[in-house]
Specification:
Largest sheet of chain B: 6 strands, mixed
Number of helices of chain B: 11
Number of domains of chain B: 2
CATH architecture of the largest domain in chain C: Orthogonal Bundle
Strand content of chain B: 25-35%
Radius of gyration of chain B: 23 Å
Structural class of chain B: alpha/beta
Structural class of chain C: mainly alpha
CATH superfamily of the largest domain in chain C: Winged helix-like DNA-binding domain superfamily/Winged helix DNA-binding domain
Chains: A mainly alpha, B alpha/beta, C mainly alpha
Distance between the termini of chain B: 51 Å
Helix content of chain B: 25-40%
Number of helices of chain C: 5
Helix content of chain C: 55-70%
Distance between the termini of chain C: 29 Å
Order of helices and strands of chain B: EEEHEHEHHHEHEHEEHEEEHEHH
CATH class of the largest domain in chain B: Alpha Beta
Order of helices and strands of chain C: HHHEEHH
Strand order of the largest sheet of chain B: 5-6-7-3-8-9
Strand content of chain C: 5-15%
Oligomer: heterotrimer
Largest interface: A-B, 32 and 38 residues
Strand order of the largest sheet of chain C: 1-2
Largest sheet of chain C: 2 strands, antiparallel
CATH superfamily of the largest domain in chain B: P-loop containing nucleotide triphosphate hydrolases
CATH class of the largest domain in chain C: Mainly Alpha
Number of domains of chain C: 2
Radius of gyration of chain C: 18 Å
Amino acid sequence: MYSADISTAEVVKKQVSYKWRAYISVFTSLVVIQLLAVLFSLNGTGMSSSGGMNYNIRVEYYNADMIMIFTIFWGFITALLLTTKAYREDDFAFVTNRTSGTLSTIIYLWIICSIAGFAASLSGYLLKVVVFLFTSQELLSNNGAEGAGIYVMGLVSLILTIFMFAGFGYAAGMIVQWNKMFVILLPVLFIGLLISLESAGYSMDRFFFQFLFSEQNFWLFIMKSLAVSTAAYVIAFLISNRLEVKR
Amino acid sequence: MKAVQCKEVTKKYGRRTALHGVSFSMEENKIIGLAGRNGAGKTTLLKILTGLLKESDGEAEVYGNRPFNNLLVSANSIYIDDQMNFPTSLTLKEILEEGRRFYHNWDHTLAMNLFDYFGFHPKGHHNELSKGKESTFNMIIGLASRSALTIFDEPTTGMDAAVRKDFYRALLKDYLAYPRTILLSTHHLEEVEDLLEEIIVLQKGNLLLHTSMEDMKSYAVAVSGRNESMPEWMKHKVFLYEEKQGPYEKTIILENDLTTVEKEELKRNGVQLSAVSASDAFVYMTGEANGKGGLDDVFSGHINSGSGQKTSQL
Amino acid sequence: MILDTDGMKPIYIQIAEWIESEIMNGGLNVDEKVYSQYKLADIYNINPATAAKGLTKLAEEGILYDKRGIGKFVAEGARQMIIEKRKNQTLKQLIDDVVTEAGYLQMSENEIIELIRNSWKGGSE
């Protein structure tokens, strides 16, 4: 009856596939949110026009920023939801401990973030198609000459960013599960920190964006975003190891 | 190997202490009952044993391992209660499939046979089941997992009498075929007392008793007869309960340490001796009423204090 | 046999008595294998340890004997042992009770013997 032959790796593998099957509905919300983003993007993000005697040029800029931002937000919320009571109890319905539960969730998040990133990049194309089909404008694409290398780098960066924000959501969720006070404290602390740093002359958001997104070196960006993600996931991991399962 | 060993296990929830240094051990492959009134700490103890909760003090061990956050304990034990949570997106059949993937001893044939026997729909969902059906489904998981330590915490909630009977029968038959350590907490002690080998009684977070079921069944004896026919030495016995039956007769429940001579004297006085079932003994030994009088006294006091007033309670 | 689960008599004793009855009425013969504790547990819906206790009791009394790893068997002279036991214990207890009751009713020894004699005749006719 008793078996001492249990490996964490094996259980983690089982749990990842269990979560894949159990939480298949996260993709419904992904599709909805990306379609919504495409819809919003159709307004265009900028416009310039110039004209002469007999002609009028109107340039509208469309880009897929909205899709990416929405997808990143989706990653954050999905990870946050996975820390709530109902989902954590789903973990404990079958064989698990905190370590395997958290590890499998992180791997699961990585998988769905990759899919989300890829889907977002496709949504970018969808946007172009929609603009092409439903507006009478000439389409001037600026990424025709980019090539596959640039596309892959963009995709990887996007996935890493979604994964990082999922990490923020996961860590924030765990902190809240650890102590419910943080539901209020966490946003207060975050905004308070922004404001106080701002008033002291540091711009937190600018610092953050400079640190990460203005990074021109692709590899350095990967290192930095992975480091930030790791920090978030380690925090979540440490907290989850202390959490009890109170039904 | 001991299936379970508890040394001074204490659990505090904030300021409230749910378990006060509980120590006991359980041999492998027995069916053991866990009894206690509401709030005695049964669920807390069981959740500590399966690693869902962490003891605040002391040590709990399951097959030699501390259960909290332990994969070995999780893989070799299962905790079934009436609040099991499964992913809402999975159908009942899919949940059983997941069970098969996770538990190394899982018997899928048994699971599916019981599933069909109790008339579940494969495409049904766990959150749509009635309370009794839900308990029945959870029970199937508990039995099919064949976990070395199988824990049922109030498994029969909402089940009707026929299903409860089926459950006990299934539990015994599967245990006979695949002996394992089964810990069963229930409020229906009278229904399971013949299934159990041992019983553990908790009271207000303390271990009151851990004994064989045979001893539990002869733990107490009921003595009833006329007041004047009770011998003098009866005063020195441990009374668990006393009830007046009319002005001249009474029934006394006392710990069963009567000698043959004492029994004969009682019989000669025309006093009746009768057995007290394990579940009745449990009620008497954990009765809040001891020393404070029974429920009747609560009401008589109430009526006296509220003289003339209508008692609107109840 | 239906177990009397509420009675004064422990279940393991009822199990032992049931096996004794089987031996007495020829259901189980000398050197025949007795039901295992698991089979008994299944039949009577009881814990196998309880059933085992009943079997052990009979083995200790010499009514059954043990074959390691196979099970318990009816011993040579089991019937005689059961008869002796019931004479010395069950019957004696019953008679004790009769005498006690007779004491309450202030009956004489002869009156009791007379009653038994009448009952005996009535039963054998």
